[in-house]
Amino acid sequence: MDSERKNSRRELLKASAALAGGITLGTSGKAQAQHDHHPATPGSENASPMIHGSKEQIEYGQRSKYVTSVRVQHPIGGRPSPDVFGKVFHVASPLQDSVGVITPSSLHYIATTRGSFLPDIDPKQHTLTIHGLVDRPLTLTMDDLRRFPSVTRLYFIECAGNRHNGRQKTVQDTHGMTSCSEWTGVMLSTLLKECGLKGSAKWFVAEGAEEVKGASSIPIAKGMDDCLVAYGQNGEPLRPQQGFPVRLIPPGWEGIYHTKFLRRIKVTNEFYMNYNEFGHLRPEDKELALGEQIGPKSVITYPSGTQRLPGPGFYEISGLAWSGGGAVKTVEVSTDGGKKWNRAEFKNTPQRMAHVRFAYQWKWDGNPAEIMSRCTDEIGQVQALREQIANWWKVPFERDYRVPGLDNSIMPWKIAGDGSVTNGLA
Amino acid sequence: MGSRSLLRVATIPLLLGSLLGSSAFAQSPTYGVGRTPTAEELRRMDISIGPKGEELPPGRGTAKEGAQVYVQKACVACHGAAGVGGLAPILQSKRGADVPVWKKERILPLRAPHATIVWDFINRGMPVGLEGTLTPNEVYSLTAYLLFLNNVIPEDLVLDQQTLPKVRMPIGDEYGKPHDFKPNTPRLKGYPY
Hints:
The structure holds two protein chains of two kinds. Chain A is α+β, with helices and mostly antiparallel strands. Chain A has helices spanning 2-26, 29-37, 54-59, 142-147, 171-175, 188-195, 220-225, 275-280, 285-289, 386-392, and strands at residues 72-73, 88-92, 110-116, 127-132, 138-141, 151-158, 178-187, 203-208, 215-219, 228-233, 236-237, 247-249, 262-268, 297-302, 313-322, 328-334, 342-343, 345-346, 356-364, 369-377, 413-415, 421-423. Chain A has three domains: 2-43; 91-281, Oxidoreductase, molybdopterin-binding domain (Sulfite Oxidase, Chain A, domain 2, Alpha-Beta Complex), CATH 3.90.420; 297-423, Sandwich (Immunoglobulin-like). Chain A has a five-stranded mixed beta sheet with strand order 5-4-13-8-9. Mean pLDDT of chain A is 90; it is low at 12-35. Chain B is mainly alpha-helical. In chain B, 37% of the residues lie in helices and 2% in strands. Chain B has helices spanning 2-22, 39-45, 63-72, 75-79, 108-111, 115-125, 136-149; strands at residues 60-61, 159-160. Chain B has a two-stranded antiparallel sheet. The longest helix of chain B is centred in the first third of the chain and has 21 residues, at 2-22. Chain B is globular.
């Protein structure tokens, strides 16, 4: 009976496919044009013409051709992507077009370990090996990894190069080096326990399989707390740009620690300075500490630089907030250059080390305005103005002041009387 | 016979004790998934060189040999003659010998706190397109050459497993060390932002 049912369903599918094909083939250009101009159902003007092709309709859907938002290279330090060697370094996500909190995998920002090519890894050939100060070194195939209990969690990633300055135009330029995905994988603690950590274990080195074998050192305390060995992103395998077939997610830490193409984890008893950590090298312990866990941060994505408000009236100011210290607790929005702060609402439930979408309902009176947002996280860290940060470090505040560690200072946008939005730091 | 069985009885808790003592978190595997890599696999795969250089392979090299490898392996094509003037990052400081290291350029064989980091990066990441193909001797030689170019070591110093980790880098101890990380705490104690 089951097979009968299947057969009849197959026949039906065949018939409808033939019908659809017949219509397509049988419709003359003229008839098609008439159909476009005289839709049968009022209000269906935009439903025609149709998108054709098995790939689009059945196998793997693409976005509408009318949606054109794309990533752009983010030339931090004047280094283009690709550079003269063809290596990609920094590519920014179009936050100005984002809605909700999940970044589409294909628009997730890209950063590589100081520049690398994109490896084309066959997951059947890829293994992850854990060794060093463990009782039992372990080599896992990707199939092995999927046999362990999995977790699925929302986490943002942000590159240390996500710094805003007065020369940038859009929020993609100022803040596009962060994205948020739903990641699926195995807790690193599960794997480390399976190997049996030795008592002398203090750090681990995570290493990728790309040509430069990018490696980072992370405290074992972080590894045992919440690190994820992720093979899934937004419901499907990781994208190659995001480390296919497996990457490390140390939630809330700077992007470079999120080792892509993860092939090896070595547990050590001391800090191994890899080339990645050499890039973090600073004269003072204090400043170095600010280059690991990301501080509380937020930015208004609408309205933002180069956008334009069509006229006075109601607007929902919307943006993203996050912190490497935990979940976002509150976000405040100011529409008068920071004099008065108003509590913003959350559009989703704040989660640990994840973007949260905030909004503030605002009636613009048509006068020039300066808008900005401020984030406070669950452990009490507060996003500050650049001037406040300079004061804390007891250094004179100047226009080109460099915020120590990852720049989590407040980002202002200016709205002119004609509704045009520009960088408030300019 | 009685004393032998007594010995056996006494050995069990001793063995147990030494097993537990060797590993604070020792426990048997929960899932039993995956396989044990062979010692040879680990030796080939483990390219991480710690500050003490314990993982360094046998081999040797001097700056003079390194200068030849630098040309033979086409390092010169990207990094320029003697590490200056190429499209890739410079490898020799342009600043005077009296300039403090933190006022000089961010050059790996100059600012790295350990010479082992220079060896590690050349070994894993160079040259472009042929990463990981240099022999240990070539890597020792190149490391010596770049350290010599930056006035870190004399031209005739032979770098090997013993001498490389002992090289005194110009930065000395003048750099920030990682703090003791604790989850759910501010990123820097006392820092409100």
